[in-house]
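Quick one, tokens below:
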């Protein structure tokens, strides 16, 4: 080959590669389109209950397709629905062997076990149920398998003549039934387990059996029956459960007596969280809550949960004594659940006293000892403010930037942004641009199948496959129009993430969706529609039929009497607070009324919307504050303080995301 031919051959080779690439890409797209069409057709047949055609259509999906496991699962379900149980079992088993990492493999194996049980192939069923129970220990299918393993032993015992073997087999059944109730007391098989335990024990129940049965009835909302079984159990060990049951029965005097005795004698028998719940219920039954706290404090200073009582008491002591109260908790219960918040309060008091160097040391100690607690963002923000006071401006800026990076969606991140930019007015935007809620994940190699199932609208299978992913469950609820449930699921899922995703991540739109925004703008008048949207999110999570325990109604959670007063002032006749238009109209008029009284400051209006404008005016008169954040930290109503933080946090995220 001469030197002149080489460039020509290289050019031909490059062109060939390009053409092959184009052809391969075209064929790949054609194959994908064909696969999606096949699956879509199979799904339509399945929804029409034409299981024979559905089975045959799903079988055409290539083994090389990422949709194959889902298609095989649909095939097995089609066989099951059409009564071909043996073939369904075989298909489920093949699926679990071929695709051990498929998300529905535990359910497929469980389905095969359940079908085997239904057609009375008990040995086969037992083997499969044991595999589910042993291999997928934390799944709901493992819990249900315990019940069926108990049933198999129960049935087996009925056929036995040898008394020793019979008793041994019955005991094995009992172990399974007890395990089921202990793990899923409110489960669909709980009542059956109760009946079997009582039968096998000839109603001669141990204290532990009585407790398990009581726990099950409590979870099934049958509090009267639960009470009968709780009375026969180990009261020192389970007193907090009995307190919860007494609360539901409104047996308040019994509840209080048992809580007092529990704190005196039984507190070391139960977990702290259960004691905290019992204390909360005890206090909730009293008119004078502070006296109730003092009563429990005087019973046993060594009781488990005593630090919680001290923490509650600190909120009730006069403001000038609170710092000393919180110091007591921090120094004496440094490893306790409330130490971080106690230290934060001591830290903030030092700021109030203008002891900035002392406050700096306390704040740094907080971040060192409690690096990721509910109070961490607040500490970081106020440390920034402290360093500003000390004229360490670069350090202050570093704290603000760190807060914005690590807790970008937090209320204090918003405040850090305002401080770092030296912005005095927290109202940055009066309008936002809507963006659609989309499937929360973009397609990649690890989620290829679930994104395709979302595209194909196979929502029921997607729900099962992604039952542990709250963002996908949120998106599925959104597709059904269950906006409130969707937003709450996404909110909780985002709160669980240690590291927050970037602002353009699609999951944020589920956490902060935009609903009824055009209507809000229509009725907002001079109110900021983004603020009203944020308030609606926090008040009702977009549930038009929301009703609070005190009777507040609709999107903006208006009390009927307040709504009547506002309607009368504005010449409005009949209205329905569950109607979007009426609720937003009257809610905005009420917001405007508060704004007029409180001189146009949204900060105080939002506080008044929750705590009442008389309370806000009183606080403005007697609180010693330098700025809004300083004012907020001193608001004596914890609920109202948190309410403003939630609304402004929503506002910050709406303007941040949209």
């Amino acid at each position: 080959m001469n030197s002149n031919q080489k460039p020509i051959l290289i050019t031909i080779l490059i062109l060939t590669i390009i053409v092959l690439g184009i052809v391969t890409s075209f064929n790949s797209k054609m194959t994908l389109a064909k696969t999606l069409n096949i699956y879509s057709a199979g799904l339509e047949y399945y929804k029409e209950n034409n299981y024979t055609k559905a089975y045959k259509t799903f079988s055409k999906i290539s083994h090389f397709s990422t949709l194959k496991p889902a298609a095989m699962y649909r095939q097995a379900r089609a066989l099951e629905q059409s009564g071909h149980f043996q073939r369904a079992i075989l298909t489920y088993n093949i699926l679990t062997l071929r695709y051990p990492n498929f998300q529905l493999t535990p359910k497929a194996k469980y389905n095969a076990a359940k079908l085997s049980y239904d057609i009375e192939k008990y040995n086969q069923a037992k083997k499969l149920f044991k595999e589910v129970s042993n291999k997928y220990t934390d799944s709901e299918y493992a819990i249900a398998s315990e019940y069926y393993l108990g049933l198999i032993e129960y049935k087996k015992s009925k056929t036995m003549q040898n008394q020793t073997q019979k008793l041994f087999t019955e005991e094995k059944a009992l172990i399974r039934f007890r395990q089921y109730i202990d793990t899923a007391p409110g489960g669909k098989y709980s009542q059956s387990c109760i009946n079997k335990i009582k039968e096998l024990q000839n109603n001669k129940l141990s204290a532990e059996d009585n407790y398990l049965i009581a726990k099950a009835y409590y979870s099934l909302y049958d509090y009267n029956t639960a009470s009968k079984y709780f009375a026969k159990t180990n009261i020192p060990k389970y007193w907090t459960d009995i307190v919860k049951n007494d609360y539901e029965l409104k047996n308040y005097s019994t509840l209080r007596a048992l809580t007092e005795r529990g704190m005196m004698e039984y507190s070391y028998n139960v977990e702290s969280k259960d004691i905290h719940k019992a204390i909360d219920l005890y206090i909730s039954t009293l008119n004078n809550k502070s006296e109730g706290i003092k009563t429990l404090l005087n019973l046993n200073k060594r009781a488990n949960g005593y630090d919680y009582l001290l923490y509650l008491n600190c909120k009730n002591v006069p403001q000038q004594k609170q710092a000393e109260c919180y110091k007591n908790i921090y120094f004496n219960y440094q490893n306790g659940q409330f130490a971080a918040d106690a230290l934060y309060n001591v830290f903030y008091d030092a700021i109030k006293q203008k002891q900035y160097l002392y406050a700096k040391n306390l704040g740094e100690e907080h971040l060192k000892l409690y690096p990721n607690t509910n109070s961490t963002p607040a500490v970081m923000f106020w440390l920034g403010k402290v360093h500003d006071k000390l004229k360490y401006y670069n350090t202050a800026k570093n704290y603000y930037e760190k807060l914005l990076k690590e807790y970008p969606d937090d209320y204090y991140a918003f405040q850090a942004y305002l401080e770092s930019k030296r912005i005095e007015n927290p109202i940055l935007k009066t309008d936002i641009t809507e963006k659609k809620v989309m499937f929360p994940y973009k397609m990649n190699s690890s989620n290829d199948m679930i994104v395709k199932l979302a595209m194909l609208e196979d929502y029921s299978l997607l729900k099962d496959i992604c039952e542990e992913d709250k963002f996908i469950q949120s998106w599925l609820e959104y597709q059904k129009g269950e906006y409130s449930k969707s937003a709450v699921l996404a909110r909780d899922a985002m709160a669980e993430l240690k590291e927050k995703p970037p602002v353009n991540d699609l999951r944020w739109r589920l956490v902060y969706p935009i609903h009824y925004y055009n209507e809000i703008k229509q009725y907002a008048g001079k109110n900021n529609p983004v603020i009203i949207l944020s308030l609606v999110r926090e008040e009702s999570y977009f549930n038009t039929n929301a009703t609070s325990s005190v009777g507040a109604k609709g999107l903006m959670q208006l009390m009927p009497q307040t709504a009547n007063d506002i309607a009368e002032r504005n010449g409005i006749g009949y209205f329905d607070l569950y109607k979007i238009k009426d609720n937003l109209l009257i809610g905005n008029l009420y917001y405007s009324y508060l704004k007029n009284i409180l001189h146009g400051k949204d900060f105080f209006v939002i506080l008044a919307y929750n705590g009442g404008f008389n309370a806000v005016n009183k606080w403005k008169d007697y609180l010693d504050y330098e700025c809004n954040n300083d004012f907020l930290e001193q608001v004596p109503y914890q609920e109202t303080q948190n309410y403003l933080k939630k609304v402004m946090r929503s506002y910050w995220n709406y303007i941040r995301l949209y």
